[in-house]
Design goal:
eleven-stranded mixed sheet; Jelly Rolls; mainly beta
Length: 359
């Protein structure tokens, strides 16, 4: 029988497992979002280098530039602690200045959809007229993406609080260095700790195991669910769908116990398969649904196109009666996909007197 394999292509309605955080680097390349001129935030470190500058004659919060990252395939920006690093300096020893950011969501038509925070991730004062890298932190609350054509925007400011007296004839300046390929990544202007992209931790065709994965920490109590959208099927119209099988590759970090199960969502209702055992080595498990569990009838193409697939799980738990103690470990899932098995119904046509049919 023919089959079709589909892999996650965006986040679904549940994002409860953890994923490694991402770092966004400030780049010099510009992009115009309608009429708003911005610079890119990228997941890759600096590859060029430029300096942004602002002259100040009064204590003032200077807008250095706006940096954006389009939220393609991002369903949720999870709650996490961000650290914003600024490569900066001031021109005069008697100046006092620090950096901070505003965080916004900007629509593709250039309109700001929402302002999430202002004057946050405040750095210490620059301590030198030489280049330094300083940082500030911000506790980001969960944000559900409204439209994946939107942009996450981080506006960097340098706030000059004190100027020398008398004011020097050469003026007073503040500088921000971005996209510097010569600097090590730890010195570049960047935002770390973001939880942006989730589905690509589990979407690879060949499992990469501990390179990318979603996880449940050993300290996390309770069942956690993740769901993902899949592309529309290419199964021919008129074919009979025999079954769908969700595969997931998982392991624990210390124990061998039941901890994970396949999960689907159809017609607004979620269904989980049976729990599977995993130890400290990755194993691929699966669950097959021969019919749609909501309708109890054969799957249709429309139902496949609306289907979400994923995994349900919990931390590993084991009670040792001899010691009278519970032991816990973390759970990881590195790959999720679905295989759809179907039958093509052969066309029938009349022959001879029109009363006989062949296919």
């Amino acid at each position: 029988m023919p089959t079709e394999t589909l892999r996650p292509n965006s986040g679904g309605d549940k994002t409860e497992w953890d994923a490694p955080t991402q770092t966004l680097y400030a780049h010099e390349e510009q992009v115009t979002v309608d009429t708003a001129v911005c610079r890119y935030l990228k997941l890759i470190s600096g590859d060029a280098g430029t300096t942004l500058e602002a002259e100040t004659i009064l204590p003032f919060r200077h807008f250095m530039d706006r940096f954006v990252f389009q939220l393609t395939d991002v369903a949720v920006i999870d709650a996490s602690t961000w650290s914003i690093y600024y490569r900066a300096r001031r021109s005069h020893v008697d100046m006092r200045a620090h950096a901070d950011v505003d965080i916004k969501i900007r629509r593709a038509d250039g309109v700001v959809r929402t302002t999430i925070a202002t004057h946050v991730a405040i750095s210490p004062e620059f301590g030198s007229t030489s280049w330094v890298t300083v940082s500030g932190s911000y506790s980001f609350a969960k944000y559900t993406v409204v439209d994946q054509t939107d942009y996450l925007e981080i506006d960097i400011h340098i706030d000059v609080t004190t100027l020398p007296s008398p004011y020097p004839p050469e003026g007073c300046w503040v500088y921000l260095r971005i996209d510097d390929a010569v600097l090590g990544t730890s010195l570049q202007t960047r935002a770390i700790g973001l939880k942006l992209i989730h589905f690509d931790m589990v979407d690879e065709a060949v499992a990469d195991d501990d390179t990318t994965y979603i996880s449940i920490a050993s300290t996390t109590v309770g069942i956690k669910n993740d769901l993902f959208h899949i592309p529309d099927t290419a199964i021919p119209v008129g074919a009979t769908i025999n079954n769908v099988t969700v595969y997931f590759r998982h392991r624990g970090t210390a124990l061998t116990v039941e901890r994970c199960a396949a999960r689907i969502k159809t017609y607004g209702t979620e269904y989980a398969g049976s729990d599977k055992i995993s130890g400290t080595t990755y194993v691929t498990s699966s669950e097959t649904w021969s019919t749609n569990p909501n309708t109890l009838s054969a799957w249709t193409i429309d139902e496949i196109n609306a289907l979400q697939i994923g995994v349900t799980g919990r931390r590993g738990e084991y009670y040792d009666p001899d010691l009278g103690m519970w032991f816990y470990d973390a759970t990881r899932c590195t790959q999720i996909f679905i295989i759809i098995t179907y039958t093509i119904v052969a066309a029938r046509s009349p022959v001879g007197d029109g009363l006989t049919w062949v296919q």
